[in-house]
Every structure is written in structure tokens, then in C-alpha cells.
Amino acid sequence: MPSTDADIAGIPGLDDVARAILRERSRPVAAPAGMVLFQAGEPCEELVLLSRGSVRVRIVSEQGREIQLYRVAPGDTCVMSIACLMGEDVFQAEGIAESDIAGRAIRRQAFRDLLGASPAFRDTVLAVQTRRIHDLVGLVDALAFRHAEARLAACLVERASRHQIVEETHQQLALDIGTVREVVSRRLKGFEREGLVRLERGRIQVLDLARLKGLAHGTA
């Protein structure tokens, strides 16, 4: 069904070329809050560009545990949909409408034509893909190393002097908690950003002992 300018006005990141393609080669879509839009194992036939609302993309384990991967809002593209659409693969996650949504759906060839013809659309897709990769790496890092973070916090609490100074290198701390120096350095940088410590040459100044204790015991 051809779209009108009014239909696509709410979709950010489009230039005149992209709007022209959407007028002729997209269809309107809408769904209520809570509706499951796609599930793991299903094929992907279309990419939805949102003009209103948001979608939550998640993985659910057999035990019912949920991990949220990312959200999609107007101006974003769903990286899972793009990966499946381009690779002609099935979804590896589940998408749920967080609120009432509306937008336009395009099929595989229209998406490829948009990428080739519209610099604005191509730049938007690449920017979102790059951001999502960084977000997902951060998520994996947090899930894989959160226990290391708790052990590091406990180690700092234990070794802090009465002046709240830890005089150990990152390598020494890594050996103490059974991980590698790179993990310790990343965690310490995170602690510093949160105002828990100040990193100095050859030593660490503890700034918030109470919060470190909370991290060590899983209460922070």
C-alpha cells in the first residue's frame, strides 16, 4: 500500500529519496502495547521503521529468565531484524511492543534499495548498528564479569589501609581475585567513573568504602 507524507513524517532520519521509496514500497503497521511482534525461530520478512512508540527486544531462557538486549524507538532500526533480513535467517530474540506502536514496514529488496539510494538512511542505519554493537558488548561484559566485580570490590575493602589506600597493581589484584589484568582495569575504571575510587600510579585511593562493601555483598 503506498504511503503518504503524513504517514512517514514521524520517522526520523529520512531524506527526500528515502521518503519517495517509502511512499511506493512500504505498508502501514500498528500494534498495541504488550503485543509480541516477533519470536525466536521465526523468519524475518520485513523491517519496521517506527514513527511512534517503542519496542523491547529480549532473550528469554528456558527457565524464564529475561535479558533485555535493547529498545527500538523512532529514529532507531532493529539490529536483530536487519541481521536476519540481510542474512535470510531467523530471529534469535523476541520483540515486544512496550507501548502502542505505529510505523512503516519494508521488505528485503526495498531495504537494500534504501541503503543504496539514500545517504541519510544509510548513515542512520550504520550509526544505530555501531551504537548497538557497543551496547551489546557492554551487556556481555556486565553479565560475564559481574562476579569479578564483586570479588574486586571485596578485595579492595579487605586491603584498604586505615587511610583507605590500596597499594597493589592491577596485575596483583587480578591474581588475588583469579582473573586477568584487563578485567581488573576495566572494573576499576568503572569504579572511578562512579566515584568509588581514584586511580593513582601504583595504588588506589578508596573514596566510598560503604558502596564498595555493598558491591562486594551484592546490595549496591
Question: How would you describe the overall organization of this protein?
Answer:
The structure is a single chain. The protein is of the alpha+beta class and 220 residues long. The protein has helices spanning 5-8, 16-25, 79-87, 108-117, 119-159, 170-177, 181-193, 209-216, and strands at 27-31, 36-38, 46-52, 55-60, 66-72, 94-97, 101-107, 165-166, 197-200, 203-206. The strands form three sheets. The chain has a four-stranded antiparallel β-sheet. Strand 9 and strand 10 (203-206) form a beta hairpin. Helix 5 packs across helix 7. It is elongated. The model has no long low-confidence stretch (mean pLDDT 89).
Concise description?
With 220 residues, the chain is an alpha+beta fold. The chain has helices at 5-8, 16-25, 79-87, 108-117, 119-159, 170-177, 181-193, 209-216; strands spanning 27-31, 36-38, 46-52, 55-60, 66-72, 94-97, 101-107, 165-166, 197-200, 203-206.
